[in-house]
Design brief:
Length: 507
């Protein structure tokens, strides 16, 4: 919250500087220079949140990109988490020192556009200019129809979430929320995986009877839960135009009241209430502590949703993954998450064009999208990834019963070896065993679930203030859950009104 308020303070400071940009206005289309990219030497700064494993993948493809465009130098930096990227860029905008490219969410871009600094991409996307590459081939600057059609529609359309139908971002890598469940426990007790919220309530009740000390369900994001319910119930949340903050209505108050009852019955907890990611409850095997049997969290965090193996390399339970419950399974709605990338305006238009060529290369490159997905657990943004030999081979492993690497003769786990063939040990000198197969299994299963529901993704409207709304509805859920007393319904009404007032004040 402190980071958010700091960002808002910076943006308040921006308003006098960019007085003409008092709210989101359509940014004039970037004017593509005649001839497109002229081959000039430029340095492109790219802010992201990748760790070492993903940076390795990125560097591999930067090297490939530079074989085509040797004069475009990519300097990339990990800038903490997503909020850290937003905070740093918001500060840099005040002095015109923002990067060329950055990871972003729609509400981040809306904030940046208070100052009108994000390049509109429509002219670049539609450009038919032929660009010469160092390998003596050419490509058109924009996207072909085949490339456009290869994007998962919901991911691509996120770039147009600003109420003006113009394109401000390109999808990079995506995730959504999925339901992780203890498949071993469900099988033992003949429990069905819930597909609706009514079924979820019944399953929670059944689990409490089996294990009274448990908290059957953990839900990481209160804000996502609220916003998703608005979508599933076709109930107002926000709007990029007109009356922006619309979530104070009877339908929304009713579902919050219902889930409050779940919390009061100890059916569910959330990240804020648990004071940590609820995956910790889900993977807990300590019988003296509370545990859950279901967890709703990011598909990109799949490897955090599996329990640790014992000394023999065996896992205490098998993890199943399914879509989150729906109000109406025939009209499913699941949130689109994960970073897109935006390109910032620069005095030198060649920097913008060069940035676009790099963004286009990564987002339309099937090999990069495949490798990045398998390394990260994020969902590839291209439909054609599912048809690659590498992806098919990985998915085929889902059908194998033995998901842990063990020696075929001894049945014991196989030690991990370094490049010289030596057994890898941890800091305490313990042997490190090959767990890549189980990690790969759960990450791939998560990705497969996401791809199977590609038509269900939604994106919330984005505007200057949409991040405030998200903060408020997340806090609102938490505050409502812990209400006590017979007049809790009136208290819920009061809290909704206060949240709307806070949005209008901060937005």
């Amino acid at each position: 919250m402190k980071k958010f308020l700091a960002v808002m303070l910076v943006l308040v400071m921006l308003v006098p500087v960019f007085a003409a940009c008092g709210g989101h206005k359509a940014v004039p289309n970037f004017e593509v220079p005649e001839g497109g990219y002229d081959g000039s030497e430029v340095t492109i700064k790219f802010y992201h949140t990748m760790g070492a494993n993903l940076t390795k993948v990125l560097n591999k493809y930067i090297e490939s990109f530079n074989k085509l465009y040797p004069n475009i130098h990519i300097e990339h930096s990990q800038v903490g988490g997503y909020d850290d990227v937003r905070s740093q860029i918001s500060t840099e905008i005040t002095v015109g020192n923002q990067p060329n490219i950055a990871y972003c969410y729609p509400d981040h871009v809306a904030l940046y556009n208070v100052a009108g600094v994000v390049a509109n991409l429509d002219n670049l996307i539609e450009s038919k200019i032929e660009v010469n590459r160092a390998d003596e081939t050419t490509e058109i600057l924009g996207l072909t129809e085949e490339q456009k059609n290869d994007f998962i529609e919901g991911y691509y359309n996120e770039g147009k979430a600003y109420g003006d139908e113009l394109m401000y971002t390109m999808p990079f890598s995506k995730s959504t929320e999925v339901l992780y469940y203890n498949k071993t426990f469900f099988d033992e007790h003949n429990l069905s995986v819930p597909t609706t919220w009514d079924e979820m309530e019944a399953v929670c009740e059944a689990i409490k009877k089996i294990d009274p000390s448990s908290i059957p369900l953990g839900y990481d994001s209160e804000a996502n839960w609220f916003i998703t319910m608005c979508e599933q119930m076709n109930s107002p949340y926000t709007s990029a135009t007109g009356d922006k903050y619309r979530f104070n209505n009877e339908t929304n108050r009713a579902f919050v009241a219902r889930f409050r009852e779940w919390y009061q019955k100890n059916y569910v907890t959330t990240q804020t209430l648990y004071k940590a990611y609820t995956s910790g409850l889900f993977v807990n095997t300590d019988s003296t502590k509370a545990k859950s049997y279901m967890s709703i969290g990011s598909s990109a965090g799949a490897t955090h949703q599996r329990p640790a193996a014992d000394d023999e390399g065996n896992y205490p339970f098998e993890v199943g993954i399914a879509s989150i419950p729906q109000v109406d399974p025939s009209n499913p709605k699941v949130i689109s998450q994960g970073p897109s990338v935006c390109i910032f305006k620069k005095d030198n238009p060649q920097e913008v064009v060069a940035s676009w060529l790099f963004v286009k290369y990564l987002t339309t490159n099937v090999d990069f999208q495949t490798d990045f997905s398998l390394a990260s657990g994020y969902v590839p943004v291209l439909k054609s990834v599912q048809e690659t030999a590498k992806y098919k081979a990985t998915v085929a492993k889902l059908e194998k019963e033995n998901r842990i690497v063990k020696d075929e003769k001894t049945g014991k786990p196989v030690p991990k070896l370094d490049a010289d063939g030596n057994v890898v040990t941890d800091a305490q000198g313990n042997t490190v065993y090959q767990e890549e197969s189980i990690n790969e299994y759960i990450a791939t299963l998560s990705t497969k679930v996401c791809l199977d529901q590609a038509n269900a993704y939604y994106v919330s409207p984005a505007f200057n203030g949409s991040s405030t709304a998200r903060e408020q509805v997340g806090s609102l859920m938490t505050a409502c859950f812990i209400l006590t007393g017979a007049d809790y319904e009136q208290q819920i009404k009061n809290l909704f009104e206060e949240a709307i007032a806070a949005c209008e004040y901060m937005g």
